[in-house]
Amino acid sequence: MGNLSDNFNSKDFACKCQNCKGSGEYKIHLGLIGALEMIASHFKKTPKVHSGFRCDESSEKTGGAKRSIHNMGKAAHISIDGVALNELYIFAKSLEELRGLGFYPKDSFIHIDTRPGDRTEWVKEGDLYGPLTAEKKKQYGLI
């Protein structure tokens, strides 16, 4: 059991940059934890959190905005051993509380977040980010 939920601990979301490593600094949105628990329940496996909270410095070093969704504790990059990335993405898309969805086929994870507003979906191909169009969804088996 975790200290945040049945399957997750604060260390799963702590910033992993050199400055924060070991400090345990993190922020987490409870809606994100709830969505992750629904994913774990559906697949009967705990998702691996590749990246959760990022401090401002870490976000800037990874090319993100200084005040990104990760900085607010509302985002995570996840995968599940033995679950195809497209299956994970399709299920995550069914969860209404997830407003941001990114498909990262080369990195072998998906991005999920609980940002406010309309849903947005994208794909990262190589170093380029682009909209997840109907054509791209078909290409990656997301429909």
Count of DSSP strands: 6
Distance between the termini: 34 Å
CATH architecture: 2-Layer Sandwich
What does the largest sheet look like? Answer: 6 strands, mixed
Shape, please? globular
Helical amount = 25-40%
Average residue pLDDT? 91
**CATH class category name:** Alpha Beta
Order of helices and strands: HHEHEHEEEEH
At the third CATH level, what is the topology name?
Muramoyl-pentapeptide Carboxypeptidase, domain 2
Strand content: 15-25%
From the alpha carbons, calculate the radius of gyration and give it in angstroms: 14 Å
Oligomer: single chain
Task: Figure out the total of helices.
Answer: 5
Low-confidence stretches are: none
Placed side by side, the strands forming the largest sheet appear as: 1-2-4-3-5-6
* Number of self-contained structural domains: 1
Please outline the helices and strands:
Elements: H1 10-13, H2 30-43, E1 48-51, H3 56-61, E2 75-79, H4 85-93, E3 100-104, E4 109-113, E5 120-125, E6 128-131, H5 134-139
Parallel strand pairs: 3-5
Antiparallel strand pairs: 1-2, 2-4, 3-4, 5-6
Please, could you describe this protein's structure?
This protein has 143 residues and is α+β, with helices and mostly antiparallel strands. The chain has a single domain, classed as Muramoyl-pentapeptide Carboxypeptidase, domain 2, CATH 3.30.1380. It is 27% helix and 20% strand. The chain has five helices and six strands, in the order H-H-E-H-E-H-E-E-E-E-H. It has a six-stranded mixed β-sheet, with helices on one face. It is globular, with a radius of gyration of 14 Å. It starts with 9 loop residues before the first helix and ends with a helix.
